[in-house]
Structure formats: C-alpha cells, structure tokens
Write a structure and sequence with these properties.
CATH class of the largest domain in chain B: Mainly Alpha
Structural class of chain B: mainly alpha
Largest sheet of chain C: none
Chains: A alpha/beta (435), B mainly alpha (276), C mainly alpha (290)
Order of helices and strands of chain B: HHHHHHHHHHHH
Helix content of chain C: over 70%
CATH topology of chain C: MetI-like fold
CATH superfamily of chain C: MetI-like
Number of strands of chain B: 0
Number of domains of chain C: 1
Number of domains of chain B: 2
Strand content of chain C: under 5%
Largest sheet of chain B: none
Number of strands of chain C: 0
Largest interface: B-C, 93 and 103 residues
Radius of gyration of chain C: 24 Å
Helix content of chain B: over 70%
Oligomer: heterotrimer
C-alpha cells in the first residue's frame, strides 16, 4: 500500500516536474547589457531546470512596435518584455502588466534607487523591475581640453560647452567639438533636446495641455542646438543617434559628447575605444535656472497581463535584476560592465566605484533627475525627456523631424518651432485634450 | 580585317559590361569583404580591399549571439512552402484565365494585382487580431498563409502570361483525344510550361525570403525568419560595421547562391508576356 | 458542348484564387473601413466611439499629407525612370557578344536578391555615411567635401538605393525581350543605312514596349509600398522630405497607435492605389491586348 503510494507520489512528482518545465519567451533590446544577460542566462536555467528560455532580440524601435501591438491586443506572444520608463506608467494604468509581487525574499526592493522605482510604480504597485538605468552626462576628451587650455568644471554651463566645443573643433583633422543626437525620433533627438529645454526653462505643455513651442525658451533652446551643431558638429548629424555618436567618439572624432551615462563603460573600454585613456566626465550642462539638462531612463523587465506563466517569468526577472546577477556579471565580465544605475548597493561597492570612473556622476545625475517636476515651470505631465501620454511617441517623432529639418537648414529655427506648434496642437485636438 | 574589328568591339563591350556590372555588384562585394575585417578596420579612414588581417570573429560572434540556423530554417520553410502552396492555387486559376478567356478576365487580373497595392501597415491591426484569434501568431503556418496571399496575384499573372504563349491547339488536340481537364493540365500543359512555372516559383521564393514587414510583426521566438535575425543587428551599440556585414552576408548568401544556380531558369520565364 | 463544360470547369478552377484573395482583401478592408470611423487608439482602449469622417479630415488636412503624396509620386517616378533607362542600357549591353556573360549577368542580378532592410543598412552605414562611409573616404581622397546624403538629398538617396534594388529586375526582363528581337530586321535597317539611334528608336524601342509596360506595372506595385528603406535610412525626414504615404500611415499606426487615423490613411492609400491601377489598366489594356 505504502509502496504503491510512494510510487504514485514519485510518478506524480516526476510528471509534475515534466509538466511544469515551462518555456518563457523574453523580448529584449539588442543593447550590450541585454546581450550579456542572454549569454549569462545559462546560469539561470541550470539553477532552474524547470524553466526554459526563448529569446527575441530586436532593435529598439522594432521591439517597441512588436511588444506594444502584442500587449494592447492581448496577443500573448511574450512572457517577459523589455520596456522603458515611458511605457510602464501608461501600461500599468491600463492594467496590461502583472504586478511584481513574487520577486523573492532576498530581492531587496528597497535597494532600488527611489528615482527609478517611483517611475515604475503605479498606485503603490511595482509593475516592472529595472535592468539598468541611465541619466545623461557630458563626456569629453581630456587631451583636447588640455590642448585648448581649458578645464572642464564638474558642473558646466551651456555657455562653457559652446566655448569648449569651439576651442576643440579642428575640422581639418576630423575633430568636431560637439556631438549631439540629431536623428529624428522621440527617443533620439527629442530625448536630448527636451532634456536640454528643461534647463533652458522651456516645457512641452502648460497646465492646460497647450503646446509651448511658441515660447522664447524653446526658441533659445533650439537656436543654441542648431547654432552649435552647425558650427562645431560632425557632418551628417541629422542621422546620428546614440550608436553613431558612440562610434564617432570612440574613433576620436568628437571633443564633447552629451549622452547616456551607460556610454561611460563603452568609451573607457580599451578594446573598442581609441580614446579610452583620455575621457573625462561631467554633469549635464545648465543655464543657472535650477534644472540641468539630464534625462532619466531605465530599461525594465515586465510581465504582460496576458502571460500564462507569470510565476516563472517573475523568477527570471528576479534573477536578472538581482544583486547576485550584478556579482555574476562582475565575475565574468568585470565590474565596469555590470548593468548600472538601479541599485544603491552598487554605488556603495568600493570595487565598482574604483573600476568605473563615471559611477559617481551617473549616480548624481540619476538622483537629480525628477520625472514628477521635470521643468522650471509647472507641467501637467510626468517624464523628463518625454511626456508620459500615449500620443507622445507620434508627436515626439513628428516634432523631432521638424528639429532635424532645422538642423539640416531646410527650415529656420522659427519655422521649425511654428510647424511643431501647429502639429502638436492638431494632435492634441484630435486626442481631445485637456482630458 | 573584319574579324579583327569585331574582336576589338567585343573587347570594348566586355570591358564596359564588366565595369558596370562590377559597380552594381560592388556594395555586396564590399559587405562580404567587410564581414571578414575587425571592427576597427571596417571603419578605417583608408579602407583596404584585400590587404588586411582576415578574421572569422564576426561570424563567431553572430553565431554565438543568435540562433542563426533556426532563423535560416524558418526562412526556407516559409519561402518554399508559400511558393509551392501558391503554385497549387495559382496554376488552375491561370489556366482558366489563359485558355477560357471571358470579357472579365482582364479586369479580374487587374483586380488581383491591385490587392497588392494595399499598404500592409494600414491593415496591420485587423490582421493581427485575426491571427491572434486563430492562434496563428508566431507560427510558420500563419506566415506561409500570409506570404502565399501576398504573392498570389504576381504568381497568377506570371503564369497567365506564360500560359498564353502556349498555342491553344496543343491543348485542344489533347482534349480531342479525350483527356480530362486534370489530365490536360497535368500531362500536356505542365511539361510545356515548366520553365515558366520554375521561374514563377523562384521569383516567389525570393520575394518571400526578403519580405520584412509581416515576417517581423507576426512572429516572436518560434517562427521568426532571417529578416528578424537582421533586425537584431540593425543598430547595436558601439562599432558594428563588421558584425552587421557578417549578419547581412549570412542573410543574403543563401539566396544569392540559389540565384546563381537558377539564373537561367529565372530569366527564361521572367518575360511577363513581353516576348512575342 | 465541350466549351460550356470547360467554361464551367474553368470558373471552378478560378474559385480558390478569387475566394482567397477576396477574403484576404475584404475582411481586413472591412475592418479597416469600420475602424476608420472610430476614435480608436490602441493605447487607450475602452474609449472607442463613432466620430464620422473626423479621421479622414485629420489625415487629409495633415500638412504632411500633400508632401508625402508628392514624394510618393517622385519616388515611384524617379525609380521607374532610372531603372528603365539603366535597364534598357544594360539589356543592350548584355545582348552584345561579350566574354563571361554569365558572370556579368549574375553580378547585375545580385542586388535583386538582397533583402531591402539589408541593402538599406549597407548603403546607409557603409557607403553613404558622411564620416565613415566609403563615399566620404573617396571624396576626402579627392579633396572634396563629402556629401551628407540623408540630410542634403534624402529623397534622392532613397531613390538611388531603391533603384539599385530594382535595376536588375528591369534589366533582365528587358534583356529577355531584346533577345527575342528579329535580327533580320536590324540587318535590313543596316542595309538601308540607318544609324544606331534610329535603329534603337524605330525598331528596338517599339519591340520593347510590352516589356517596358510589364516592368512599369510590377515595379509600381512594389514601389507604392516602399517602407523598409525609408525606416532604416531617414525615418521619413528631415521634416517630411522623404516621407511617402505608406510611411505616413506607418507613423500613425505604429508610432501613435492611432488605429482610427491609420485606418483612414489606409483607406485613402487604397483609393490612390486603385486610381493608379485604373491608369495602369488603360496602359496595359492598350499594350498587352493582343
């Protein structure tokens, strides 16, 4: 009897593990940190033999279209999605994401930096776990600065940046003083220019959702951007995004590059960067108005409500965003390559602080960004370099096109702002704001 | 004298033809070469055509990073599956249009072609919803269906123009001998029309292989073909020219080889009724 | 007797194609038509309501609409012009007696096999990039300023890339046609003392007219929905300088997830496509009648 029972128990145990061996599908971006995650995920599957992983790795924009289509139509193709701080509040409010409540006892949610965590929490529920986070900062060539006889302050002003860019520009030998994003897109030039505009005192909308591109502050922002890029920027700026500028900086063609803090690890990497020895870091510039031009972004892992395997998915997310994962990356790839910006404990780790010369600036930048009060004047929206409303991807990209046209000289600054104002007004009317 | 002259002309024409075709082929050649360079050499300001350290590291990286052979297999199944399914549907239709013409035939043909002018992105959401409800998302079957439907008009038209060049009398003779329609198509029409059918098949394999909208939007991990593979290399971080080249080479070389071996067949049936 | 029988059968054999295409066309089309009258954003579900023609109004009065309509025509026209011109030249060249014709032919044919995404990526990064691209290196070597292709001449750059992809197709069809040309006719013209130009104009060109029609028809179908090349290279900009109708609809559907607006755009595109189809039918009808 008891033997029979135990056989049955054995069988059912065997069967249940066999049945429970679930396959979860993970959609992610083709950024370096995610590729490392995929590579190291063997360690997760060996610890969790009952879970198989399938990966869908795509370029950011294509990934975003696919996961958005899927989550909105409840297609159920993915169990874990890599999404940004822009999507989380919108999707969380719609009830499209599963609350992350089973991350495990050792997960230490309170270790996640509050600036990041707040952006991923809707009505006190955590809907996504940050994989890495970034702000933006100034990266510059110390050798070129020395040659120009200048010293970069820790917290430069926009005026100083222009001065330094001018001094470093040497077009004959292919050195351009200032590299900034110019490729049109809400996550490309608009991320940079919107963050910039915050420090110029501009804002996208006033409290009644009226677009503000007709303001003097916007004019100053765009004029500064266009002027300095035409004078000191590399050719082809209007097609340059993060990757293109990274390639330019790594090959020694940029004096100053203002972009994501995650780039710190790439520009100081001796294998890929010709200028690794001569890179300095500083806070994003300001204009003395109390806001600096740095943004706040994090790539996060979340589970769509349509997933039927949310327990397994949560176990994976817990692993990929844990302190232990950080240590795993440090052991395999070195401390400088761990996913940055998400946990306070990382910045208390002397090994990391010693290995990453950009760590303190990254932390300061992330902590100083405030998505709730991003601008000098009050705004009705959340988000530093974006406006967290569903319509923003479309209008952001359309405005980005106008700014790119101003950069290439097809439009004047004034025309670009006028047409931005018109098109945003139209879109807001169509979406029937104020809501 | 005249012979000498004609050799001279031949030499000149050969030179011009090789130069121009070399220029046309150059971007592909350059991609292939770059795929064997290191990232630093790939971006170098004084690029070299052959004199560099040839390396396979880009291919190793790409293979380590993505399940290339899964994508490759999916591409094969989808492109060949949809072309064969398409032929099975298109041959009867083309036969009927070519040999039993009515006043409406031409309009029907144009209507079929006009369905191809629908911008796919305009009907994306409806198709996605239908696929979800029929459980076809991320399945090869689903993609075979879509590719078949997308290319069906072209197939019908190509076959129609080819069939029309076949004299009706040949078929009528068979009919006189008491052949059924099935026999007529199978034993009389198909052997004569084989070159046309072969090139229709090839053209559609190429078109389906290269289709990059539906194959990207309707797949995830299981059915994604090489177009999805490329989409994970389109703008990665850092220097990427060499890796991009390697991935590109891996996506296009199979179809280039197919093209190389089948170019005669492809060309023979590609006339769209223009040879008459 | 046999004919009525075979006629009935013939109709039967058309059924699968017609039914399938009808379903493929009508089901999404009806859904699209329905959505186009709704205020329906995929990202804010539950707020759908009937809004009449407002989506159409917004799409047609969009400042981007006319520019992209015009760009669509330029893109299709430009590519047709280049591929037909170049294709005729190549076809005549390949028709000559040359050494290694097979190798020349496969090289000319090769771009047709390349995925649009790949060719756009290769052209954008490795050839046309104004700093690290090959053309820029070449210009620097000549001591000239490199052209910033996608900023200065965005639409033309895209036309060049697309033409590169479609030139082989045109060249091949035209070559097949040229090879069927009656040589005796040309020799007779030679005897009459006709120059190469008049031989081309009075004999070759008329002979090619049907092939040209076929090229125009097929290419137009594909060129109207050019999309991947624009997405990869310019994202439709700067401004709207390289946005075509398909891309405009894309921004509505997959950036704004405005299903209503995107559907209205889709319907407009279908109407435009049908107008084009009617034109083509006239053209084809005249040229392919007999």
């Amino acid at each position: 009897m008891s033997i029979k029972k135990s056989i049955i128990a054995c069988c059912s145990l065997f069967l249940s593990t066999a049945v429970l061996a679930e396959t979860i599908t993970i959609a992610t971006v083709n950024n370096g940190d995610m590729i490392t995650m995929k590579e190291l995920s063997k360690s997760f599957t060996s610890e969790n033999p009952d879970i198989n992983l399938k990966w869908v790795t795509l370029e950011e924009n294509i990934l975003r279209q696919r996961v958005t289509t899927d989550v909105a139509t409840k297609g159920g193709q993915y169990d874990v999605m890599t999404i940004g701080t822009y999507e989380v509040p919108i999707w969380g409010k719609q009830g499209w994401l599963r609350e992350l409540d089973k991350l495990g006892e050792n997960y230490d949610v309170d270790d996640i930096l509050p600036a990041i965590r707040n952006g991923l929490t809707v009505k006190d529920k955590l809907y996504a776990a940050p994989f890495y986070a970034e702000s933006s900062m100034v990266m510059y060539r110390t050798d070129l600065m020395a040659k120009a006889g200048l010293t970069m302050p820790k917290a430069p002003s926009w005026e100083f940046i222009q001065k330094a860019a001018k001094a470093m520009t040497d077009k004959q030998s292919g050195v351009y003083g200032l590299c900034l994003r110019g490729k049109a897109g809400w996550g490309e030039n608009i991320a940079l220019i919107t963050a910039m505009s915050n420090s110029f005192g501009a804002r996208w909308f006033d409290q009644n959702w009226k677009p503000q591109f007709d303001s003097q502050e916007w004019h100053d922002t765009l004029q500064y951007y266009v002027d300095s890029m035409t004078k000191y920027g590399p050719p082809g700026s209007s097609a340059n995004g993060f990757n293109e500028n990274l390639a330019l900086f790594q090959t020694g063609k940029c004096g100053i590059w203002i972009d994501a803090t995650v780039a710190g690890a790439f520009v100081t990497n001796k294998e890929n960067s010709e200028v690794a020895e001569h890179v300095g870091f500083a806070l994003a510039p300001d204009n003395g108005l109390g806001k600096r031009g740095n943004w706040l972004w994090s790539w996060t892992l979340a589970i769509p409500a349509s997933s039927k395997k949310s327990n397994a998915a949560q176990r994976f997310i817990s692993w990929a965003t844990s302190k232990e994962y950080t240590e795993l990356v440090a052991a395999k790839k070195g401390w400088v390559n761990v996913p940055p910006g998400t946990r306070a404990s990382l910045y208390n780790n002397p090994d990391y602080m010693a290995a990453a010369p950009f760590a303190q600036i990254t932390l300061d930048s992330i902590q100083s960004a405030d998505p709730i009060n991003p601008t000098v004047k009050p705004v009705p929206y959340v988000g530093v370099q974006f406006v967290a409303i569903p319509e923003f991807q479309g209008i952001g990209t359309a405005v980005g096109q106008q700014f790119a046209a101003a950069l290439t000289g097809q439009m004047t600054v004034k025309q670009a702002l006028q047409s931005a104002q018109r098109l945003v007004e139209r879109a807001m009317r169509k979406a029937r704001y104020p809501k | 004298m005249a012979n000498n002259n004609s050799i001279k002309t031949k030499l000149i024409y050969t030179f011009i033809a090789w130069t121009i075709s070399g220029l046309i082929f150059f971007p592909i050649l350059w991609t292939l070469i770059t795929s064997f360079k290191t990232e630093a050499e790939a971006i170098s300001a004084s690029p070299s055509l052959f004199m560099f350290d040839w390396t396979l590291e880009n291919y190793e990286d790409v293979l380590a990073r993505s399940p290339y052979f899964n994508h490759f297999w999916n591409s094969i199944v989808i492109s060949i599956g949809s072309s064969i399914l398409g032929l099975l549907i298109a041959i009867p239709a083309a036969w009927s249009m070519a040999f039993v013409q009515t006043k409406r035939t031409k309009n029907l043909l144009m209507w079929m072609l006009s369905t191809k002018m629908l911008p796919p992105v305009g009907v994306l959401i409806p198709i996605y919803l239908l696929f979800r409800d029929f459980g076809l998302l991320d399945t090869k079957v689903g993609l075979v269906i879509v590719m078949t439907l997308i290319n069906l008009p072209i197939m019908v038209w190509m076959l129609y123009t080819y069939f029309r060049e076949i004299p009706n009398e040949v078929l009528e003779a068979a009919r006189m001998d008491g052949a059924s329609i099935g026999e007529e198509i199978l034993y009389v029409l198909l052997p004569i029309a084989l070159p046309g059918i072969a090139s229709t098949l090839l053209l559609n394999v190429i078109l389906a292989w290269n289709e990059a909208f539906w194959t990207l939007i309707l797949t995830a991990a299981n059915a994604a073909p090489l177009t999805a593979f490329i989409a994970s290399y389109s703008s990665p971080e850092g220097l990427f020219y060499a890796k991009l080249s390697a991935a590109s080479a891996m996506a296009i070389v199979p179809i280039l080889i197919l093209g190389w071996f089948s170019q005669k067949q492809l060309v023979r049936g590609l006339s769209f009724g223009a040879v008459k | 007797m046999a004919t009525t029988n075979s006629r009935a059968l013939a109709r039967l054999m058309l059924v699968p194609s017609v039914v399938l295409l009808l379903a493929w066309m009508l089901v999404p089309l009806c859904m699209t038509l329905y959505f186009s009258f709704l205020d329906y954003n995929l990202l804010s579900p539950g707020t759908e309501e009937f809004i009449g023609f407002m989506n159409y109004e917004f799409f047609l009065t969009d400042p981007a609409f006319f520019e992209s309509f015009f760009n669509t025509l330029l893109l299709v026209g430009g590519v047709l012009l280049i591929t037909l011109g170049g294709g005729i030249g190549l076809a005549i060249l390949l028709d000559q007696a040359i050494w290694g014709r097979n190798y020349v032919r496969i090289m000319v044919l090769a771009p047709f096999f390349v995925m649009p995404t790949v060719s756009a990526l290769v052209w954008k990064n490795m050839l046309m990039n104004p700093v690290n691209g090959l053309f820029a290196h070449f210009a620097n070597w000549l001591g000239m300023t490199p052209i910033d292709f996608f900023a200065q001449i965005p639409l033309l750059s895209i036309i060049v890339i697309v033409s590169w992809q479609w030139l082989p197709f045109a060249a091949l069809i035209l070559l097949t046609a040229i090879q069927s040309l009656d040589r005796e006719q040309l020799e007779a013209a030679d005897l009459d003392g006709a120059g190469p130009f008049s031989k081309f104009y009075y004999i070759v060109l008329p002979h090619l007219s049907r092939a040209i029609t076929a090229v125009i028809l097929i290419e137009t179908i594909f060129l109207l929905s050019i999309f991947a090349e624009i997405l990869v290279t310019t994202s439709g900009g700067p401004g709207y300088a390289s946005t075509n109708i398909t891309y405009l609809i894309y921004t509505q559907s997959l950036l704004q997830f405005d299903v209503g607006g995107g559907s209205a755009g889709g319907i407009v595109a279908v109407i435009i496509a049908n107008i084009v189809a009617i034109f083509l039918m006239r053209l084809i009808g005249k040229n392919l009648e007999d």
